[in-house]
Amino acid sequence: MKVPLGCGVVLFSAASFAFPTSLLKGDISDDALAEITALAAKISHEAEAKRNFGRVKRAFDAGSQSVKTTGEHAYIAPGPNDLRGPCPGLNTLANHGYISRTGVDSVVTITTASNEVFGMGLDLAAFLSVYSGVMAGDIATVSIGGKPKSGLLGGLTSSLGLLGEAQGLSASHNRFEADASPTRADLYKTGNPVSLDLAQFEQLVAMPKGPNGYDLTVMHPFRGARFNNSVATNGRFFAGPFTQFAVNTATYLFTYHLFANFSAEHPDGYLDLETLKSFEGVKGEPGSFQWEHGCERIPDNWHRRPIGDDYGLVSFTIDALGALKALPYMAVIGGNTGEPNTFTGVSVTDLTGGVFNAETLFQGNNLMCFAFQTISAAGPDILRGLLGNALAAIGKLTDALNPVLATLDCPQLVKYDAALLKAFPGAGSGL
Ligand code: HEM
């Protein structure tokens, strides 16, 4: 039986985490509620437009694709109390004041800024932001780096998130921050999955460039090499259904699709070394690159994706499948069992009670269905509709995402045996 994959009650359904009681008192201002309602309406409207008109390829238009880097959006390095984390996209947004320069902001602002500056689809940006609010923030607000010094966050009156005190994205290992990232090292390898790792960056830069610079023809083999490296060097390497198929895939796809510079000559975007260095906060030349905390920056004269050709959930789902078709050996869930080179796969058939198997994972939208349904099966229950208007407000956002996710037409996942992942010492309560 095929059922729509809901992002609200369904997506975050099983109540495997306790609610901090202070959340029950959670409330947000009328202004914030109005903002969320407007954003939800915009997502619904765009989804409707896409259903009616499909994906529209637009000609380059310098005026509308140019991104402001002056005045209130000038680059300013973060101060000592400002937080930055593992996502170069969000760090860049904070360094230019598109989200709060403190590094702590609402899921609404993070969603709209990701869309405005990088052309990430509102649906995808809302999904990532809400997910980060739940997993690493206080639902309505999140730190893009570590834990804020003076409590959280302002979204709710509480400083507690669903999983206890909100730790920020930097400490979201295996829920969001994951192994085998493009430029960040594995947590259990260096202890620092947040800073850019220069050796990894050198390795990326040394790859032979594709027709559009550091494009997907580069990112796919680079990702394969990074995966193999993690298996060979990190005894606690873990690849979960959500982190491996959705998060890890996204990091490689975003690097090209969202950092590339668009022009009349390159209407599909070209990612050259200078642009990549700027967004990743790297200075210097190959062989002597330097990276300093907080230097991620929009290059002057950079042009984003065309307005109306945002990189949203549908494009991402198609590309994610393409990425794993390019690297079929990576279509696995599992991890090392304590020592390097002990990678042991978990049977997708066993994990899902036979709903998916290694073959059907590649059919239709099953790959993303499986990744998203993992959250549904093992994530916290955020939306019972009983917990004050803060949660109801986020419910509006996830309601708006439901029809988008429903187009994936997912088979129903009746069983998810998370206990199978306990065999991996690096898994923790990973997804
Ligand atoms: C919308 C909200 C977003 C959230 C919550 C988010 C969160 C994250 C997190 C937690 C990571 C670390 C993943 C890992 O360890 O592999 C990450 C990585 C990454 N993100 Fe974001 N992100 C968001 C938006 C963006 C945007 C707008 C861009 C624009 C380019 C972006 C580009 C990237 C890239 C390229 C990486 C990989 C970093 C690396 O090289 O290792 N993200 N993001």
UniProtKB/TrEMBL annotation:
Q: Needs which cofactor?
A: heme b
What is the residue range of the signal peptide feature?
A: 1-18
Supply the SUPFAM superfamilies for this chain.
Cloroperoxidase
Q: Which Gene3D superfamilies match?
A: Chloroperoxidase-like
Heme haloperoxidase family profile domain segment(s): 71-318
Does the keyword field hold Nucleus?
A: no
Keywords from UniProt, A to Z, are: Heme, Iron, Metal-binding, Oxidoreductase, Peroxidase, Signal
Give the top-rank taxon of the lineage listed in the UniProt record for this protein: Eukaryota
A Pfam family of this chain? Peroxidase_2
Q: Which family does it belong to?
A: Belongs to the chloroperoxidase family.
Question: Which protein are we looking at?
Answer: Heme haloperoxidase family profile domain-containing protein
Organism this protein belongs to: Curvularia kusanoi
